[in-house]
Amino acid sequence: MARVQSVAGESVSSQPAEVLSRSTVLIIGAGPVGLCLARVLAEYDVKSVVLERNGTTTRSAVFQLASNLAITDNILARWPKMDLTNSRSMELFRRLGLAQDLRSQGVASHIKCPVLISTGLHMDQCVTKWDHPSVDEKRVRIAQKNDGTMPLEPYQRLSQVYFEKWLRGLCDQNPNVEVRYNQKFESLQECDGGVKAATTDIVTGEKKTINARYVVGCDGASSRVRRGLDIPLDGGPIPRYALLVHFRSRDLTRLHKQGQFWHIFFIGQTGLGAAIIAQNEVDIWTVHQFLPLEKDPDTIDSYECVYTALGALHGRYEIKIDEILVRSIFRPNIAIARQYSSMNRKVYLAGDAAHQNIPTGGYGMNMGISDAYELGWKLATVVNGYAHPDLLRSYEEERRPVALSSIERSGVHMRVHNSVAEITQGRPEKLDEKSEEGTRARQLVSDHYQLNDGENRDLGIEMGYRYKSCVIVPDLAQEPPWSPRELVASTWSGIRAPHVFLRDGTPIFDLYGKYFTLFEFSDGTDVGAGYLIEASEKLWVPMKHVVLKNEDHAHRIWEKRLVLVRVDGHVSWRADKLQDAEAAIQIIRTISGKSTSYQAEMKNGDSHVVPEAFTSTVDNSTQRAEFQMEKIGEFQQ
């Protein structure tokens, strides 16, 4: 049983102190979420200091996707866990002007992304597959549909190793970001002026205190920030663990025996037996072999792990492996922090520190990116003096319900794979029998996967959520129906405003301002936009005003004459007409956290839900001062 124990450390008041400016945010953890947060803050000219306990961001193996680079000595921690930046994350990177640069780091846009379901590569054909389009094909579909039910940006395949390296480069070049490596966060203490964080330099042993107005814990699943705040973590792991082997091979003839793939899920005796991920479509792959908890991973050779995984039900399937890059174990876990901030709302959690999920669906790091963007623009708006600190209350109110639905959905996706054991009545080998029973079993499994194909396709989960918080003006209209699969084209308050191309081909998304944007679909009549403009100026809340004429198609999709949109694309308020200046003042006060008059009307029961259990998990529990699981991975600690 691996355990990470909370350490109180030396009293922060007795250590030498560094005082950060009131406009500088202290971030704990320089993983993808911490670096994203720093980059978002920098967009608003808000400085950040990022503390990272390791000597670099990607400390498991430094390698390039298209060339050979030696592995470093630090080979046991971070992994290329994420391999897909989803459409919502790509939209947010587009807001930062970084989408195209990110795409240049990843898999080429013309390459398709099929997911195969297989009994092993000894067989000539897979059992069934999910056909995910290439980025280029997805762009064509988005342009053709243009009805508000599609994202603006397609997804992008990119290994987390390179994602982090790219982010680190962006932050290193930005004068508003200072990343300090080999800095271990020990403990914190909230005080009247903010937060005192105790740190240790791992190289020199120097201890000191950093005083900051705001601190954000982006320090992973075992978050010392979360444990230091004594915030409960509710949830549990799946009943097995995975042995991960990351390797190089150009044996495409053998690997592509059943066709080119992004993922292959291999059916095992008790459900999902193994999986392989094509990291770069050239020579880098990751195998996940699922094992019972009692199995000692040290008894399994890395090469044999790959061969066994690829052979699945039919035994070893050898390929030519050029190099084993790194191996580790990983225990998939679904859990959520009961709060996302400290009592005084000076300390916040983001990413795995706040929520954890099974990789199926690819929600984990993508949720973390959205956490970073949401918290980033809100912190910046407060620090820059354009909003009341109560705006920050909405971070938990909005993001925690999203995490609850997403992490549960990851368990649902996992159950789809494990249900094959029931469908085949414990005899998955009959899927390859040339018999009537075999044909029937193959059809049943194929139908099962095609009926339950939401993994990486559930846009409702990924970006169709509705924010309900103290800074969203309640909508008097009936809430539109929601489904995990589809995006609903609506501007109902709290929803992400629909993507639509205007008559000249401009995405309406690209017209969003840096803080708030008032869209006015004008037919020449006065609908009261001036009241909002005057109110925003009076209350010193930045608001861009966009007047759209003769945009009937976009107006039909956006539904109202006036739609007030935040920088993240979510609707703050909408109406066909604003009647008076007093109403405008109330709207601007609400969206900037300067008014709480709408709180009594909010029905946001999900923001503090304590789940009893999650799909596909066992041993659900509540942890506070420690983080422990059997067969925990090094990079989970």
Automatic annotation (TrEMBL):
Q: Which InterPro entries match?
A: FAD-bd, FAD/NAD-bd_sf, RIFMO-like
Q: Name one Pfam family in it.
A: FAD_binding_3
Which top-level group of life is the source organism from?
A: Eukaryota
Q: What residue stretches are annotated with the FAD-binding domain?
A: 23-408
Entry keywords, A to Z: FAD, Flavoprotein, Oxidoreductase
Q: Which Gene3D superfamilies match?
A: 3.40.30.120, D-Amino Acid Oxidase, subunit A, domain 2 (3.30.9.10), FAD/NAD(P)-binding domain (3.50.50.60)
Citing just one GO molecular function, the answer is: oxidoreductase activity, acting on paired donors, with incorporation or reduction of molecular oxygen, NAD(P)H as one donor, and incorporation of one atom of oxygen
Q: Which PANTHER family match?
A: FAD-BINDING DOMAIN-CONTAINING PROTEIN-RELATED (PTHR43004:SF21), TRK SYSTEM POTASSIUM UPTAKE PROTEIN (PTHR43004)
Quote the protein name from its UniProt record.
FAD-binding domain-containing protein
**Organism, as annotated:** Knufia peltigerae
Lineage of the species this protein comes from: Eukaryota, Fungi, Dikarya, Ascomycota, Pezizomycotina
